[in-house]
Amino acid sequence: MRPDDIRTATHCPYCALQCGQWIGPSGAVDARDFPTNAGGMCQKGWTSAALLTHPQRLTSPLVRDSRTAGFRETGWDDALGRVAGRLAALRAEHGPDSVAVFGAGGLTNEKAYLLGKFARVALGTSQIDYNGRFCMSSAAAAGNRAFGIDRGLPFPVTDLDDAELIVLAGANVAETMPPLMSHLSTARLVVIDPRRTPTAERAIASGGLHLAPRPGTDLVLALGMLHAAVVDGHLDLAYVDDRTSGFDDAWRIASQWWPERAERVCGVSAADMRTVVRLLATSSRRYVLTARGAEQHAHGVDTVTAWINLSLALGLPGRPGSGFGTITGQGNGQGGREHGQKSDQLPGYRRIDDPAARAHVGAVWGVDPDSIPGPGRSAVELLDSLGRPGGPKALLVFGSNVLVSAPDARAVADRLDALDLLVVADVVPGETAMRADVLLPVAQWAEEEGTMTNLEGRVLRRRRALAPPPGVRTDLEVISGLAAALDAPGEFPADPQLVFDELRRASSGGIADYTGVSYARLDAGEALHWPCPAEDHPGTPRLFADRFAHADGRARMVPVDHVEPDEDVDAGYPLLVTTGRVLAHYQSGAQTRRVAELAAVDPEVFVEVHPDTAARHGLADGELADVTSRRGTTTARVRCVPTLRTDTVFLPFHFGGAGAANNVTNPALDPVSRMPEFKVAAVRLAPATTGSTPGEDAGPAAKPVAHAGGSGV
Ligand SMILES: Nc1nc2c(c(=O)[nH]1)N[C@H]1C(S)=C(S)[C@@H](COP(=O)(O)OP(=O)(O)OC[C@H]3O[C@@H](n4cnc5c(=O)[nH]c(N)nc54)[C@H](O)[C@@H]3O)O[C@H]1N2
Ligand SMILES: Nc1nc2c(c(=O)[nH]1)N[C@H]1C(S)=C(S)[C@@H](COP(=O)(O)OP(=O)(O)OC[C@H]3O[C@@H](n4cnc5c(=O)[nH]c(N)nc54)[C@H](O)[C@@H]3O)O[C@H]1N2
Ligand code: SF4
Ligand SMILES: [Mo]
After folding, report:
1. Above 80 in pLDDT, residue 558?
2. What would be an example GO MF term here (predicted)?
3. Please, what CATH class does the domain formed by 575-687 belong to?
4. CA atoms lying within 13 Å on the CB side of residue 694
5. Given this model, what pLDDT does residue 708 score?
6. Which of 402, 428, 455, 588 maximizes ligand 2 atoms within 8 Å of its Cβ, making it the mutation to test the pocket?
7. Are 152 and 139 in contact (CB under 8 A)?
8. Average pLDDT for 331-356
9. Which residue's CA is minimally distant from atom 2 of ligand 3?
10. Is the CB of 324 under 6 A from ligand 2?
11. Alpha-carbon gap, residue 24 to 9, rounded angstroms
12. Residue 108 alpha carbon, nearest atom of ligand 2
């Protein structure tokens, strides 16, 4: 028997690079050659199998009769019956918007689609949103505004292979997508990041530059660079005339931001701005890529817009061998925002307030379009409304650990405590799961079928290599079972292929059109990037070659101006904190803190501080510090980093409890995308008042996990 007969081809469960994986019959993971990862995986991918048989894995539905009582195991019928009964009672007494749903960009396309339909049809609630609001929503809004479409990378990752120059604004890909670095090896890199990250080190080694702006001032940096582009004669006039609109309005603002003036705000030298603009303008194959560092701000949409305006002025988007793109984050960060789990959206990237969209989707769902609720609250606003008068009294969470990952975590804890009912579907007992009234154990990536849409808009097959442990159900089975228990109208199949075929019909004619993407074509190895409007359509690996997606075919340069971060330093809070990721941990850490090899790399939360700043605050390397903002405190071990700005400290957000970075973050929202300002808050630093960082929660179900074994397909 050939090895491929017994091992299954799938993709890593974690980030949007979706590296190719093999999974053997006993669950062993190996790297699989795929264009995005070129045979590589990061440490998280290599160790991903550890959670399949982890002693803390959830393997039975758990319920409790009060928040102070412990969990006890129960059967699925009892668990789903309880949830359905409580939801029905709340709806009857308080109306459908008294129940809410929170989804995630890690869910497969099928789950995201069925969850959105479940909320609107089975629960009849407008109150659904997802953690993608925390993720790429500002770039999504900026992309829609500028290009008329939101696809993270409008070209395949492999197009970067022979780039001459790549500007990375707020992206630390050497840690967040390590195998992506193999596509950046020929290019000279320019990294824009307040910290000297491993990616910034690579930029310097490549003969490029590291520009370290003050957190929250990229917009001014990009305006200063647009100014330099025009004044130094680098504007691509023919492109701007042919392919864009709005230059004059954008220039009216940029003309006031000569580089020396921008330097005074962002701290990057005018000379460096001019150098980068010259490099960008004179390289023949060049890209500007953004990620969360540019986006997670109260003015993130405008900040990404400023980077797009610069790219348009230099003629990058849609030109062969050049472009602008945003690196998505979660495994299905792209697909997760296309199929209707967003509060303002229906499948196919349609707007929920568009009558034609409602008519189309109502017909696919077999319901009266007027019965589909209107837009609901965005993620942070939804969390903030829980248990308040007029707000939801029940919350169903699929695939997010909001207690650790949402801004102002203390306030989130209060809101969860104010609920009548919290239901969490998860694979491990993370912090949010531990607060649930009903905890539903679900299958993991290696145990289920589905599709994911990666950072290049390519639809990929997730395949089942193993049967889930007895007692565990797939998310689709859970949603389908709940719909049945609620006597919902319409169909809620648990079979992923049936769900996907319905999703294709629902997406038909929409912006994110998946009509022509089928399991059969994907399984035959076709590389299908959406839009793919028909079975005989080859898909669209590259967008914008001839036209942008606005009706007039032009990209829009939207005028944007500098705005200070929502919170500034003062005598009480003299430093800025920014937050982000480290290589070994993923997101809220619910999964990776439970993997021994990864926990060994970074076992506890730390705070990066410049040695002078540490000394000024009576701290030394290795000591515990309290990082305190107007909202709360994060207790973390000091890591002295001589390359860091002296006005800024950095916290990774992968830890919970007293070590949660989100104890200090600011829930201020971007007015357009409703994305929170994770990347800037004012804090003070002091020696910790407690002696140790918080330990791990053992969870309720520490027992060995048995797989049914075999391929189980
Ligand atoms: N190891 C690991 N990899 C991951 C993830 C993970 O949790 N761990 N998560 C995945 C997901 S969901 C996402 S969204 C991506 C995120 O991938 P990235 O966006 O690369 O990750 P972050 O660390 O959030 O932010 C990138 C950088 O922005 C910088 N930054 C902070 N403030 C500013 C600013 O004002 N301007 C600029 N220019 N930069 C700033 C930070 O110092 C940080 O180094 O990673 C994905 N991959
Ligand atoms: N301070 C700060 N906060 C941030 C960020 C930051 O940069 N700084 N980044 C933000 C970003 S970009 C993101 S994407 C969010 C992410 O943060 P979260 O939304 O908390 O994401 P995860 O930690 O991936 O949570 C996933 C949870 O779902 C479970 N899970 C995994 N797969 C599945 C599945 O298929 N089904 C179900 N039902 N459960 C599953 C996991 O075990 C875990 O408990 O954090 C945001 N928070
Ligand atoms: S880079 Fe992302 S997809 Fe690839 S192995 Fe690491 S976590 Fe998985
Ligand atoms: Mo993300």
Report:
1. yes
2. 4 iron, 4 sulfur cluster binding
3. mainly beta
4. 17
5. 47
6. 588
7. yes
8. 97
9. 15
10. no
11. 9
12. 35
Residue 695 has pLDDT above 80, yes or no: no
What is the token pair recorded at 264?
Answer: 């005074």
- pLDDT value at position 67? 84
- HEC states along 28-42? CEEECCCCCCCCCCC
Q: How far is 43 from 198, CA to CA, in rounded Å?
A: 16
CA distance 423 to 497: 26
SS3 state at 396: strand
Domain ranges of the chain: 75-135+333-504, 153-327, 575-687
User: Can you give the pLDDT at residue 690?
Assistant: 79
Tell me which of 17, 37, 135, 176 to substitute to probe ligand 1's pocket, judged by most ligand atoms within 8 Å of the beta carbon. 176
> Ligand 2, closest atom to CA 13?
32
- Give the number of residues written for the chain: 713
Q: Which CATH number fits domain 75-135+333-504: 3.40.50.740, 1.20.1050.10, 3.40.470.10, 3.40.120.10?
A: 3.40.50.740
Find the farthest-apart pair of alpha carbons in the chain and give their distance in angstroms, rounded.
71
- What is the whole-number distance in angstroms between the Cα of residue 133 and the centre of ligand 1? 15
Cα separation of 661 and 406, whole Å? 10
Q: Distance (Å, rounded) from C-alpha 466 to C-alpha 711?
A: 5
Q: CA 7 → CA 28, 97, 446, distances in Å?
A: 9, 45, 11
Dihedral Cα 289, 193, 298, 374, nearest 10 deg? 30
**Whole-angstrom distance, CA of residue 346 vs CA of residue 510:** 10
* Distance, C-alpha 370 to centroid of its chain: 32
Backbone phi, then psi, for 546, in 5-degree steps?
-105, -35
Q: Peptide bond before 389: cis, by omega within 30 degrees of 0?
A: no
To the question of pTM greater than 0.90 for the whole model, the response is yes
The ligand minimizing its distance to the Cα of 655 is 2
Q: Which residues pair with 346 in a beta bridge?
A: 350
* C-alpha pair distances (Å), 667 with each of 467, 571, 655, 664: 41, 21, 18, 10
Average pLDDT over residues 625-648: 98
Q: 25 is written with which tokens?
A: 């019959």
Q: Nearest-5° angle of CA 30, CA 35, CA 39?
A: 30
Tell me, which fold does domain 153-327 have in CATH? Answer: Dimethylsulfoxide Reductase; domain 2 (3.40.228)
Report which bound ligand comes closest to the CA of 326: 1
Contact 607, 650 (CB under 8 A): yes
From CA 234, how far away is CA 165, in angstroms rounded?
16
The residue whose CA has the least distance to atom 29 of ligand 1 is 293
Distance CA 457, CA 453 (A): 6
* Centre of ligand 4 from the C-alpha of residue 47, in Å: 20
CA–CA separation, 139 vs 133, rounded Å?
11
135 lines ligand 1 (CB under 6 A): yes
Task: Among 130, 136, 172, 400, say which to mutate for ligand 1: greatest number of ligand atoms within 8 Å of CB.
Answer: 172
Q: Is the CB of 333 under 6 A from ligand 2?
A: no
What is the Å distance from ligand 4's center to 52 Cα?
23
Is the CB of residue 662 below 6 angstroms from any atom belonging to ligand 2?
yes
- Residue 172 Cβ contacting ligand 1 at under 6 Å: yes
Q: How far is the CA of 348 from the centre of ligand 2 (A)?
A: 23
Ligand 2 centroid, distance to 605 Cα (angstroms):
17
378: pLDDT strictly greater than 80:
yes
Is the distance from CB of 605 to CB of 693 less than 8 angstroms?
yes
> Could you report the per-residue pLDDT of 638-688, keeping only the tens digit for each?
999 999 999 999 999 999 999 999 999 999 999 999 999 999 999 999 999
- Test site for ligand 3: of 10, 14, 182, 597, most ligand atoms within 8 A of the Cβ: 14
The pLDDT tens digits of the residues spanning 116-153 come to 999 999 999 999 999 999 999 999 999 999 999 999 99
